[in-house]
Amino acid sequence: xxxxxxxxxxxxxxxxxxxxxxxxxxxxxxxxxxxxxxxxxxxxxxxxxxxxxxxxxxxxxxxxxxxxxxxxxxxxxxxxxxxxxxxxxxxxxxxxxxxxxxxxxxxxxxxxxxxxxxxxxxxxxxxxxxxxxxxxxxxxxxxxxxxxxxxxxxxxxxxxxxxxxxxxxxxxxxxxxxxxxxxxxxxxxxxxxxxxxxxxxxxxxxxxxxxxxxxxxxxxxxxxxxxxxxxxxxxxxxxxxxxxxxxxxxxxxxxxxxxxxxxxxxxxxxxxxxxxxxxxxxxxxxxxxxxxxxxxxxxxxxx
Amino acid sequence: xxxxxxxxxxxxxxxxxxxxxxxxxxxxxxxxxxxxxxxxxxxxxxxxxxxxxxxxxxxxxxxxxxxxxxxxxxxxxxxxxxxxxxxxxxxxxxxxxxxxxxxxxxxxxxxxxxxxxxxxxxxxxxxxxxxxxxxxxxxxxxxxxxxxxxxxxxxxxxxxxxxxxxxxxxxxxxxxxxxxxxxxxxxxxxxxxxxxxxxxxxxxxxxxxxxxxxxxxxxxxxxxxxxxxxxxxxxxxxxxxxxxxxxxxxxxxxxxxxxxxxxxxxxxxxxxxxxxxxxxxxxxxxxxxxxxxxxxxxxxxxxxxxxxxxxxxxxxxxxxxxxxxxxxxxxxxxxxxxxxxxxxxxxxxxxxxxxxxxxxxxxxxxxxx
Lengths: 303, 369
What we know:
The structure holds two protein chains of two kinds.
Chain A: H1 2-13, H2 21-53, E1 57-58, E2 63-64, H3 70-77, H4 79-113, H5 117-128, H6 135-140, H7 142-146, H8 151-158, H9 173-198, H10 201-209, H11 214-242, H12 246-252, H13 259-268, H14 272-296, H15 299-302
Antiparallel strand pairs in A: 1-2
Chain B: E1 2-11, E2 14-24, E3 29-33, H1 40-48, E4 55-60, E5 63-64, E6 76-78, H2 90-100, H3 109-122, H4 138-150, E7 156-160, H5 168-185, E8 188-193, H6 196-202, E9 205-210, E10 213-218, H7 220-225, H8 230-236, E11 239-243, E12 245-247, E13 250-253, E14 256-259, E15 271-275, E16 280-283, E17 292-304, E18 308-314, E19 320-326, E20 340-346, E21 351-353
Parallel strand pairs in B: 3-8, 3-9, 6-7, 7-8
Antiparallel strand pairs in B: 1-2, 1-4, 4-5, 9-10, 11-15, 12-13, 13-14, 15-21, 16-20, 17-18, 17-20, 18-19
Helix pairs in contact in B: 2-3, 2-4, 3-4
């Protein structure tokens, strides 16, 4: 309370540098203005525009601002397009689950079992090494790996484990999932390892001392305390996977079409209204996913 | 009930606990005093099982538990930083041990609730069940931490500097309450502290630790009036300890000669200690009366400590000599800075230690006074 009293006195005693009363009272709004203007111009307006355009009338070579539900009806009626939505959701859930299954143990190792901060950092950097090459190379490198005459098949055949090459490895949904998990798993490892490394050792000691077994400690202490990291990681992975198109087209031979791929094709053929519909759908899906994930933990409290 | 036998532990070759032999009894408040780095926290962690000793044994009720993991020992440790689980409410924190312990967990939720409520009442936190750990004060966290350990009815409750992070007011209240709580439960408390007042005030028995070894273990009043070692006299922080040697039958230190008490005459002496409140201040040049001895020193400053004054003097060799005077015994006197004074005390109040630091034998017989 003393501190507050001193503060007010200082504030009122200080000569007003701004001169006008308006600036003194609303000066902080000026700090906010650039950000707000930026967001309105480049986020709110385009979003509104996208929703608006999705109701425009599309003909083969032109688009007219006459409002219609036709594009929306096509999307939900068409097997191809609605199927793409379901496929996107299915691949997203699979990739999310796999990045968690591979990422969490890795993070647990880095965050809990490596005691040395320097080694921790080195290991985390090692996780990012694939990012030193371009996205396209990372994705395309899977082709000679998974292909019919790729590395995996050659090795397995060489060892006599299989007679005929496994064909489902490439240009299938499986190859898309393998590629995505490899690329995005690090976004799960990072936040989780960070949260795990922050947990004070004395908490584990206290739990051990209170009689809890290592498994109980993991269930009741380690995992709940790392949950904010899992949620942040899941948000990263979800946002990136839901909007993906490059991995899918490079590793599926265009057989697996996600919402992102359809947007690319539609925009390519100047079907703006229809692309806008899918854009809106994708935005709604992402917003729903993020909202749901944020419900799991109160990030504001935890971070 | 718990025996430590030649317990030894080193970190990277640096010994932290050396050859410790100690018996912890049933239903006692044992305080463990040591300066920082004396190995007291290590000792506590060895007892709780959070660390493994390099050598020696720990016996608990006759069983060897030296290498038993902490969750199977049935001891409770209250950590210095409380180590409360931040994602749980006060109630869930306290209930943790009952619900999740490997051995004999309490599965009946009603029973858990009843015991938690009972323990929270004991530490004075009834009504705080639903609060999150982040919403309570430091003193309350301390109580929750204590309750969390006590609710499991440990055989021994180990407290690592439990009052260290509390402000003076709260510390004093907790001092009384910890003793009261312990007496109510009849659980042995082993309280580690770096604060000599705390160790003296709270312990039924007190252990003084230095450089990883036990220097003295006894009742606090015995330790206070008859330190067995000059290091103990220093930790207790109420003695002026003079270093020197015997020459011509007198103790020579700081270029001055002091008469040795009867029992120490003729023995080799290396340290001479006199309690700060047993010293009288006289005008310079005053010759001590019969049965008394003293030295000359220069007054530097005084410090007001509420019920008493501490007068600080400088001896000719630069050493500091403190005299304490209780205001209930005499009114404060003002001296001028740099004024020479004569300090004197009764020979019977003086303690003498041999050059290795051990108290001279006969000291033991004069304690009761």
